[in-house]
Amino acid sequence: MKKLLGAMVAFIAFGAFSTFIVVQARQIGYNQGYAPDQPVAFSHAKHAGELEIDCQYCHYGADKGRHANIPPTETCLNCHSQVKTNSPEIRKLQASVDSGENIQWVKVNFLPDFAYFNHAQHVNVGGISCQKCHGPVQEMEIYYQHETLGMGWCINCHRENGIAPPEDHPEINDVYPDTQEGYPAGAHLYQGSGNGGDCSKCHY
Amino acid sequence: MKKDFVVAIFDDEEKLLSGAFKARDKNMEIYDVYTPFPVHGLDDAMGIKRSFLPYVTFLAGAAGLTLAVSYQVWTMAIDWPINVGGKPFISWPAFVPISFELTVLFAAHTTVAAFLVYNKLFPGKNPVIMHPEQTCNKFVVAMEKDKVSLEDAKALFSEHGALEVKIQNVDMNP
Amino acid sequence: MSNLEKESCGSGCGCKPSTPDYWQDVENKVVSKAELMEFPEGEFDNFSVRKTRRNFLKIMGYSVSALPLTGCIKIPVRKALPYTYKQNTIIPGVANWYASAFNGLPVLLKTREGRPIKVEGNEKSSFGQGGANAQAQASVLSLYDTNRLREPSIEGSEVSWEQFDDSLRKLLSEAKGRKVLVTKSLRSPSEISLVKELSNKMGLEHIAFDAVSSTGEASANSETHGVYTLSEFDFEQADVVVSFGNDFLGAHRSDVANAKQFSKRRNPKHSRGMNKHIQVESNMSLTGSNADHRFTRSEQDQRDILLSLAAEFGDYSHMPKANNKEVVAKIIKELKLSRGNALVLSGSNDKNVQILINQINHSLGNYGKTIFVSEKSYEKLSNDQEVEQLIADMNGSRVGAVFFAGVDPVYALGESERLKSALSKVRVRVAMVESASSTSNTANFIAPANHTYESWSDEMVSSTELAMVQPAIQPLFGTRMWTETLMSLGGIEGSFYDYMKNYWGNRIDWNQTLHDGVTQIKSEKDSVSYKLGSINSVAKKVKNYQEGSGLQIIGFKNYAIGDGAMANNPWLQELPDPITKATWDNHALISPAYAKSEGLSTGDIVEVTSGKTKLKLPVIVQPGVAQNAVAIALGYGHSVGGKVSRKLGANAFSLVKFVNGSYQYTASFGSLKKVGTGAKIARTQTHQYMEGRDIVRETTFDAYKKNPKAGNDKVFKLANVDIYPAHKKDGHQWAMAINMSSCTGCSACIVSCNAENNVPVVGKTEIARKRDMHWLRLDRYYKGDDNEPEVVHQPMLCQHCENAPCENVCPVLATVHSSDGINQQIYNRCVGTRYCANNCPYKVRRFNWFNYDRGEEVERMVLNPDISQRTRGIMEKCSFCIQRIQDGKLKAKRERRELQDGDIKVACQQSCPSNAIVFGDMMNPETEISKQLADERKYVVLEELNVQPRVNYLTKIRNK
Amino acid sequence: MSDVVSDLRHKLVPEDRTYKQISEDILDTLEEAPSKGWLIGFSISALLLTIGFLTVAYQVGTGIGTWGLNKTIGWSWDITNFVFWVGIGHAGTLISAVLLIFRQKWRTAINRAAEAMTIFAVACAGIFPLIHAGRPWLLYWVFPYPNTHGSLWTNFRSPLLWDVFAISTYLTVSLVFWYMGLLPDLASVRDRTKSSIRKVIYGLLSFGWNGSNRTWHHWEVMSLVLAGLATPLVLSVHTIVSMDFATSIVPGWHTTIFPPYFVAGAIFSGFAMVLTLMIVTRKVLNWENYVTMAHIDAMCKVILVTGMIVGLAYGTEFFIAWYSGNEYERYCFINRATGPYWWAYWSMISCNVISPQFFWSKKMRNNLVVVFALSIVVNIGMWFERFVIITTSLHRDFLPSSWSMYSPTWVEIWTFIGTFGLFFTLFFIFIRVLPGIAVAEVKSVYKFARNDH
């Protein structure tokens, strides 16, 4: 009986350890929660939350192209040439513009090279809010990576949501109809020109 | 735990067999027989029933088959159907080889596992040894001392050519 | 799979190129070169920094230990550098397009984050009509050539431009004798105007020198029309084209324009029917390979035939040799049937031969219809006699200063000692060149010149169309436009841009022209009148040409390398020659008959001797070469040059002779001796015959007229039988059709594909091991008699089969089908079993056998940031330019409209000079592709396999 | 039944040996110091293995480009070697499983070594699919485990995936089958040895086996069950290996005859390899009493039969290629016999079809030198068979523009030699540390054979 108990304990321990390994292994390379120090102590909570500045005021590429873009330092000075000019952080910006030296922001959201992601596709065509992927940016003192940004995460969102036409442009669906038809009932993810189910939507 | 046994030692399986059958006829309960190789007929002599292992094999094989078929269908046609070379999502002929292999894999390994577990064979187990040469050239019939008397055994087995019949104190948990 | 660049501009890019807008003058916005070269950290060294999940597992892959997996894995710090100053025109991730021109071809430059990454033909040009040849496509790589000169130097030591100008000015003022500027033939009105102004100010003479000269043709026009210029053609008007060794679809000149016109008449549905093309030549040219009737004839025989024609159409009498009688009769018959709509051409650089050609065209009434000679005041054409005179004057110490602008006469005259010693007698030798060359090595002043895409210029691409050359990037190195170097020396203030703008003034709409890249100066080509009376004396001269003895040596320009100016371009070196399919080398091409008689075979090494010149070359036995001749491509054998071109092949310019006032390329005779065997010949195709297989379907025009399905009537009863139901097709379904009649085999599509898809260059050794990486290849097969072969070219790329055999066999789903019918290859999923490539009946899959070198930082700027770079162990192949499809769809969606036919053009289709490739949505019956798919000529290769390709071919039709 | 079998059976076991002597004959080797011959053989094998290992390390570090493959020929020596080794790895299981089911008692003397050989050969074979991949460090993707890519699964339609399952099933089942057979002998070693270290080691290895008849009873049933499973398994493995080719569309591969043809070829080469090894081993280890001329004679007959099946398959292939009317198939086979690789084809024919014909003669079957030589010739021939099938089919397929030639580089050659190093290293270790003949099984048939049961 003791032996049996011992065996059971060993088995459970082994199982727990394996689960731990698997759970950890699944996080490798995914930097969810990554919140590095930035060269300038910029607060999204202040600007996006409190001041309600539109995201695309700074991230001007989000509705136009692949990259949302980090704003040119000049953009900061649109206000900060008047506002809080004495703050040491703002002085860094001024110094950058004066000298022409770039501010070396630390990249937070990172996709590997083989994954193509287009902001315009989601922001402009899909009408998805920034927070859907980037989390409550308006509350972030220090910006951090909110989601895993892993493939499974992308895929699951597409599985759950299909293609939702933007509210102001319902005709998108007429132009790019779902092609769920023809796939087995209950299929979790169907391929379709509308829904990003094809591999080469992102990988090429 | 130590235990006393009445052991009869043979050096020939035919003598052993005839002795064992005799013992059965005399309702002398044989605890076990230790032989260097499987001796046919001993099972009858000892009254061992048919092994359950084939049932294990069948169940495990069936489980492997079910798993293989359902996993292939689920992954290829339900969880993420992908058009591969124009083939249907459930390309059943292509699923046959793996279904077969998994059937065999499960059946074989489960059978072996069942065999090892049932017979309590595992690395590091110390064997119960009645005679140091029982895995080489000696055939040992062992009977529990409280069930069989040494004299009866001696009488019976010497007649059938036993080299030696004696009481042996054996460590059952070596 | 570390794509070094794809991600780099993720959130703003640190490199700060500032480029002119598509349409406006933004000269002022230019930032300094130093800033441009400042690559942000982490952009180019990602490779070493990257510790991704995959790399980590790669290290751990074979390890059984699980525990370290859970250990802390450090997130590498990646920097994201925004622009400091806002760039109004650049949105990272969105391409900007600029119009420019390259070597007489109007092009568009695609730039990403300020870097030109792709060249495409300018569709607004009535001359190029959107096509682009291999050299234009590859020119963008030359921009990033690391062998380019970077700083000015005097006598080998680097100086600043100020010092350079001061010293040179001082020396020039002291120099005695002629001051000569040598350029290539110029067709830039503003540059010619500038040079004229300088000749007044500095006493600078201007002569032009072309590595492969056309003095013969220009001199002939001068005699017959009184204008020293080159003829222009309209192939669309020509019902019959007779060409004597003129490679007008290949390396001759204005190949794109010619092919655009010519291919229209290769369409059997053209209102005037198909044209008929007869080629008589001594070496198999790209043009000859497309002829309806091709005759292999030596240069002497060609002259014999030409004289017979001159006799037929002029005041001369001549009887053709027995072996030419049939050819002569055939040509005369065809020409007589289409007087006024015929075109006779010659590739010869002999004035008298070209006069005969002009006479024939004149007497057929072709001038003003298919051939034009117009007054071209904007043009400064090369004249070989001036060059010879210059060399003589230099030798006689009558030249004080010589400026070479973008020319390399020392190389192009075969490294002649004569020129070198002449140059040593000139006090001031200025080389205004992009890279070190044989010529610049003899110069004492080196003024590194801008690449075309860093320069301002203009160019008359035809007598009616002006193209603008505008920079798409700041100079990468400390270089200067050669025009500005001259302006500085001549004391002309301002930039050449100012000069140009001033020159044009109100004559053109400046902004619109810059935006479009081209503008029409005149509405139509005109033709001056024919002046020559009798050709009797000219014909007699031609008849009496002395032949050398022995083997005739034919120097020719091949398609990829041309005259050798772009020999340092790896894309071009690796581009298989459309005929020999050889790369990275020139060869001694000999006829099968000659090879047999001399016991030579492909791969032998021979020494070709002519006079004092000896060239050691590997042999390729080439069907269609004249029997007693050896053909050698020019443009190879650079003794000075970049890392690519150096030590490749032998310099066949050393066999060029100055005869009858021009440099002639077929005038040498000599002998050939076998000196070795087992040469490493890097050919992408080593079997040349179709083995009677149904691969290229072909018919004649006559048969087609009777039955449009002629040649395409093979029926496979079980072709479309499928035991499985087909997958549903809806949405867009992409398909391609390739017109085998139009396709000339020129291979421009290959370079276009290379540039678009970051296809690696693998080098000579790997090609020799048959590991070329081109996603698109051109299969070339010979048919019939080896000495008079017929040739077919077949573009072969991933066929995107609906029942793709490659997909079934991949164990990890790295190649699967998309819902819009594309055979997808997922690089990052590929483990490299190569089973897919084995199972591909078309053999279009390419495997990364190694990690191929993408070059140095500067060279990597050419990479398309939207396409991942494939690392070793990964299969790759044609993706139907999926990035362009994505881009086109996204654009349509952003504009809330449906995709239009033509919104998406794949790279090969875009560049094709003969519009042979059509791509589009086959579900929409209105699209061009749907119409092509309904054509009776449509077929698919290996139909019997029932793999149902999405790439279709249209039967080849020969008009014979 | 005694009158039918006596002649052969008499020679299957030695006369007049006691059970103890049988144990001594076979197991004493494990107790003695290694002989000089063993040391030399082992050293050479280990050296080859080392060179092979370094070569593979170089290749994995540099790329598949170090091999002689090209855009047309994506597989050549790698898969040739793979099929070659898998084929060799068929005799063992066949001998132990199929012959067990058919109650062929003569199997007992050779089944242990043959099974060991099977496992080592499959291990050698397994190396090639691993290293032939462009990115071997990602090969774990062939397992359909739930993952973070959305769960992206594997392609169950791919014969390569079938291979993964077939080979791993075969390897593990063979290993387990073999090990279960070893248990009684390991126990015997444990009980005989005087060395305490050996006692501990063999004690661990023998799982506490004590010869209890209750265990024997289940053991025998299990053996029969495993044999029953292994028989279709062994046939399925080479069937599936053949499907790597048969399910493709490459002319010369796309043939329905492949499964039986490959299985016959595998048995053919497997028995040849067993012969090669046993002829040497019985000599060196003085097992002539156990691995008798009768065994060799029987194996020669198996080789003769399977060799003729293989020959029939070659003929059938040619006939079907012609009969199909498919020009690509026809060309492929004409090209095999007369194309640039004609020498490989005719080597295959002479080794596989012609050379076994000598075994019609009993004299030849009883001449050890001839048998040894022919057993090697047969394996050379079987290697060529795979080379012919793989390389000459690929090098000229549908579009002549892509036709190409192949020649191996030193990397491929040394990798192949290295697998021989691995095979023999393992085999040398095996005969030193494990009972090379199934002692218990020999004893169990001893009386049966001797007494003419």
Numbering strands along the chain, what is their spatial order in the largest sheet of chain B? 2-3-1-4
Determine the mean pLDDT of chain B: 85
CATH class of the largest domain in chain B: Alpha Beta
- Total helical segments of chain B: 5
Taking all residues together, what is the mean pLDDT of chain D?
A: 86
Largest sheet of chain B: 4 strands, antiparallel
Given as residue ranges, the uncertain stretches of chain B (5+ residues, pLDDT < 50) are none
Number of helices of chain D: 17
Beta percentage of chain B is 5-15%
- Rg of chain D, Å, rounded: 23 Å
What name does CATH use for the topology of chain D? Formate dehydrogenase/DMSO reductase fold
> How do the helices and strands follow one another from N- to C-terminus of chain D?
HHHHHHHHHHHHHHHHH
Report the span from N to C terminus of chain D: 8 Å
Main β-sheet of chain D: number of strands, strand sense, barrel status?
none
Structural class of chain D: mainly alpha
Strand content of chain D: under 5%
Stretches with pLDDT under 50, minimum 5 residues of chain D: 1-10
Helix percentage range of chain D: over 70%
Q: What would your notes on this structure say?
A:
The complex is a heterotetramer of chains A (about 200), B (about 170), C (about 950) and D (about 450). By secondary structure, chain A is mainly α. Chain A has helices spanning about 1-25, 45-50, 55-60, 75-80, 90-100, 120-125, 130-135, 150-160, 170-175; one strand at about 105. Chain A has one domain (about 35-180, about 190-200). Chain A contains nine helices and one strand; from the N terminus they run H-H-H-H-H-E-H-H-H-H. The N and C termini of chain A lie far apart (about 60 Å). Chain B folds into two domains: about 1-50 and about 125-170, Alpha-Beta Plaits (2-Layer Sandwich), CATH 3.30.70; about 55-120, no CATH class. Chain B is built from five helices and four strands. The model of chain B has no long low-confidence stretch (mean pLDDT about 85). The radius of gyration of chain B is 25 Å and the shape is elongated. In chain B, about 45% of the residues lie in helices and about 15% in strands. Chain C is an alpha/beta fold and about 950 residues long. Chain C has five domains: about 25-95, no CATH class; about 155-215 and about 380-520, Rossmann fold, CATH 3.40.50.740; about 215-370, 3-Layer(aba) Sandwich (Dimethylsulfoxide Reductase, domain 2), CATH 3.40.228.10; about 545-675, Barwin-like endoglucanases (Beta Barrel); about 700-740 and about 880-960, Alpha-Beta Plaits, CATH 3.30.70. In chain C, helix 5 (about 135-145) runs parallel beside helix 24 (about 750-755), helix 7 crosses helix 18 (about 495-505) and helix 11 packs parallel to helix 13. Chain D contains 17 helices and no strands. The radius of gyration of chain D is 23 Å and the shape is globular. Chain D has a single domain, classed as Formate dehydrogenase/DMSO reductase domain (Formate dehydrogenase/DMSO reductase fold, Up-down Bundle). The longest helix of chain D has about 35 residues, at about 160-190. The model of chain D is unreliable at about 1-10 (pLDDT under 50). Chains A and C meet through helix 1, helix 4, strand 1 and helix 6 of A and helix 3, helix 4, strand 1 and helix 29 of C.
